[in-house]
Write a structure and sequence with these properties.
By secondary structure, this protein is mostly helical. The chain has a single domain, classed as Heme oxygenase-like (Heme Oxygenase, Chain A), CATH 1.20.910.10. Helix content is about 80%, strand content about 0%. Helix 4 runs antiparallel to helix 5 and helix 8 packs across helix 9. The radius of gyration is 17 Å and the shape is globular. The N and C termini lie far apart (about 45 Å). About 40% of the residues are buried. The mean pLDDT is about 90.
Length: about 220
Amino acid sequence: MTEFTKHAWAETAALRDAILNLPFNRELADGTLSQERFQFYMIQDALYLEQYSRALSIAAAKAPDPEAMQRFAHAAEEALVVERALHGSFFEKFGIDPDEAAGAEPSPTCYGYTNFLLSVAHIGSYEELVAAILPCFWIYWDVGNAIAKDAGADNPYQAWIDSYSDPGFGEAVDAVIVITDRAASASTADRRDAMLRAFKRSTQYEWMFWDSAYRLEDWPINC
């Protein structure tokens, strides 16, 4: 981390602590999270990843250098690979009907988060976009490692925990941090302010995503 990401991480410290202390993540760590809540989360995560991949692809197209282009293009592909894996091993393991998942609608939070990212991707600057993308990488790495330390024995969600505490995932996170700092250092003060706002908003949505899964969030009025 250099100046921008250190500052953004410090600015969101209280919110990140709140993420770690959400009932969803506490119960995920000790293995008591209900399967219904985890199923809901998995389906929404699959819907999220498809749109997140689109935002990553736009970041690759906007990137000013080949290294960043390659990183985001690879990350976009990986997001789709993970999304497909959810439809395979995780869906089967946790009793999720693929047809039900295929027909699922995004929750209000999932819809809001993905549309925020796509709005930044299409309307915002490259710098703002990479700052909006980063929390999904970084916070999952942070949560994955925190939960891995506290995970109960024979945790039914160990495969998920292992995925997000894996050193390979940590390397990808570090690479996006470097890219974000590079973008910030080459930018203007106004754009760095926009980057920080985007980073904070995505962090808020990360809190909301886990909270919405615990609440089995639905639209107030379905039609």
